[in-house]
Amino acid sequence: MTNTLVLKSSILGEHSQSNQLIDHVLEGKTGIIERDLAANPLPVLDMNVATALRGSADDLSDELKAVLDLSNQLIDELKAADQVIIGAPMYNFMVPTQLKNWFDLIARAGVTFSYTENGPIGLIENKKAIIVTTRGGLHKDSPRNSIESYLTTILGFIGITDVEFVYAEALNMGEESAAVAREQARAQLAKLV
Question: Sorting pLDDT into bands at 50, 70 and 90, what band is 100?
Answer without folding.
Answer: very high
